[in-house]
Design a protein that fits this description.
By secondary structure, this protein is mainly α. The protein contains 7 helices and no strands. The chain has one domain. It is 66% helix and 0% strand. It starts with a helix and ends with a helix.
C-alpha cells in the first residue's frame, strides 16, 4: 500500500492530520504508542479544532522532535533539533502560504469542511515526506 492509500485508510478510521502523521511515524519505526496517537489528536483541526495552525505543521514538528528532541532529565536534544525544526516550519509556511494563503486550517480550507477531503490527504503526505527527508539529510534516519 502506498503512502496516499494508507493516509486515506487512516482517514476512514476517523483519524485526522497530526494523528495520521504520528501513526505513519510509528509504523515506520515499528513501534506502537496509542497514547501518543491520542495526544496528537489535540492538534487536529488547527489545534483543538479551532481552525488555527494546521495539524500537518504541528504534527510534523512533533514528528521531528520525536527523533531529535530532549526526552530525559539528563538527556539533550540532538544538535540537529533546532535546524530540523526551522527547515520544516520554513518549508511549510512558504509552501502553504504560496498555495493557500497561510498556514492555518481556515486559510487552507477557506473555512469549508469539504475542502479537508480534497486538500488534507496531500498535505499530510507532503508533510510526512518532508519530515522523513529532513531526518534522512540530518543522518537521523
Amino acid at each position: 500500500m502506498d503512502l496516499f492509500d494508507r493516509i486515506m485508510e487512516l482517514s476512514q478510521y476517523g483519524y485526522f492530520c497530526s494523528q495520521i502523521i504520528a501513526i505513519l511515524m510509528l509504523e515506520m519505526t515499528g513501534e506502537e504508542n496509542p497514547g501518543l496517537v491520542k495526544a496528537m489528536g489535540g492538534l487536529d483541526g488547527g489545534v483543538g479544532y479551532t481552525q488555527g495552525c494546521c495539524g500537518c505543521m504541528t504534527g510534523g514538528a512533533c514528528m521531528l522532535s520525536y527523533f531529535t528532541g530532549k526526552g530525559e532529565e539528563t538527556g539533550f536534544e540532538a544538535p540537529c533539533h533546532k535546524p530540523a525544526m526551522a527547515e520544516f516550519t520554513r518549508w511549510f509556511e512558504e509552501e502553504m502560504t504560496a498555495e493557500y494563503g497561510g498556514i492555518d486550517c481556515r486559510d487552507i480550507t477557506g473555512g469549508n469542511p469539504a475542502k479537508r477531503v480534497e486538500y488534507c490527504p496531500q498535505l499530510i503526505a507532503a508533510s510526512f515526506e518532508k519530515c522523513v527527508e529532513i531526518l534522512q539529510n540530518q543522518g537521523v534516519l
